[in-house]
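User: Please fill in residues for this 199-position structure.
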C-alpha cells in the first residue's frame, strides 16, 4: 500500500475540523448585543419622536384653546369681558349671560284718541338655582328685511328673581313705524340702557 505524505497535499484538500469552543459562541454574543443595541436605539428614536409629536400637539392645543373656549362657553367669556357680546352677536350667537328667560310675548295694536298704540306684554323667568337680578330689556321693531326701524329699553323695576320665580312686564309704543313687521326682545347691554331711537 502506498504511503501518502500529508505535508505534500494542498491545504484546500484537508477538511477543517469544527471546534465548538472557537467562533460560534462569540458570534452569537455579537448578534445578541447588536440586536439589543438596535432595540435600544429604536426605543430612543421612538421616544424622541413621540416627544416631538407631543410638543407640537401641546402647542396646537395651546394656540386653539382660546378659540375652543370662546366657542363652547360664550357666556363665561361675555361675563368676563362684556364688550365681546357684540362680536358674538355678529357671529350669530344669542348669548344669555343673565340665566333668565323671556317668554309668553303678546302684542296688541290699539287705537287711543285716533293714535295707534302697540302694547307688548311678556314674562321673565328664572330657571336657575340662584337668585338673579333682572337687567333692562331692549325692544326693537324691524322691517321685513331685518332693518331696525325703532328701538327702546325698559327697566322692569322688579326685584331679583328667586329660583323658579317669574315676573311680568308691559311696555307701550305710540305710533309705531308703519313698516315695522317684526319685534325683537333681549336683555340690554350696558351702553344701551336708557336709549331710544328711530330711523
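Assistant: Residues filled in for all 199 positions:
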Amino acid at each position: 500500500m502506498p504511503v501518502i505524505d500529508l505535508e505534500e497535499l494542498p491545504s484546500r484538500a484537508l477538511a477543517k475540523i469544527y471546534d465548538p469552543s472557537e467562533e460560534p459562541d462569540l458570534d452569537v454574543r455579537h448578534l445578541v448585543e447588536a440586536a439589543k443595541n438596535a432595540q435600544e436605539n429604536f426605543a430612543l428614536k421612538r421616544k424622541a419622536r413621540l416627544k416631538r409629536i407631543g410638543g407640537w400637539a401641546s402647542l396646537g392645543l395651546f394656540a386653539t384653546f382660546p378659540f375652543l373656549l370662546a366657542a363652547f362657553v360664550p357666556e363665561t367669556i361675555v361675563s368676563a369681558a362684556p364688550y365681546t357680546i357684540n362680536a358674538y352677536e355678529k357671529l350669530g350667537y344669542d348669548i344669555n349671560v343673565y340665566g333668565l328667560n323671556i317668554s309668553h310675548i303678546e302684542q296688541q295694536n290699539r287705537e287711543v284718541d285716533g293714535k295707534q298704540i302697540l302694547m307688548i306684554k311678556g314674562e321673565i323667568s328664572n330657571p336657575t338655582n340662584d337668585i338673579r337680578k333682572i337687567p333692562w330689556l331692549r325692544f326693537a321693531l324691524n322691517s321685513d328685511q331685518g332693518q331696525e326701524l325703532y328701538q327702546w329699553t325698559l327697566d322692569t323695576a322688579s326685584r331679583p328673581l328667586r329660583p323658579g320665580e317669574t315676573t311680568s312686564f308691559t311696555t307701550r309704543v305710540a305710533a309705531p313705524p308703519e313698516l315695522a313687521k317684526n319685534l325683537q326682545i333681549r336683555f340690554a347691554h350696558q351702553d344701551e340702557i336708557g336709549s331710544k331711537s328711530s330711523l
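For context: DSSP finds three helices and seven strands in the chain.
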